[in-house]
């Protein structure tokens, strides 16, 4: 689904659970602890998702066309 990310089983490559809404156009992500940081290129922001709930947490960080995330 456009604008979402999904967990992937590293052994099978299959999606696990439901997609998590991640802005307008997620292009990169990284996981740190219980959070996933997402570069939302189309939404021009960086977002944080809670791994357990799949909901956005923390502030939306405006950024001109982010294409990578490093924490």
Total strands: the figure is 6
Biggest sheet features? 4 strands, antiparallel
What structural category arises from helix and sheet content? mainly beta
- Helical content class: under 10%
Strand order of the largest sheet: 3-4-5-6
Q: Give the N-to-C terminal Cα separation.
A: 26 Å
Q: State the order of secondary-structure elements, H for helix, E for strand.
A: EEEEEE
As a whole number of angstroms, the C-alpha radius of gyration is: 12 Å
Number of helices: 0
The percentage of residues in β strands lies in: over 45%
- The average pLDDT is 92
Query: Which shape, going by the Cα principal axes?
Result: globular
Query: Which residues sit in consecutive blocks of at least 5 with pLDDT less than 50?
Result: none
For this structure, the quaternary state is single chain
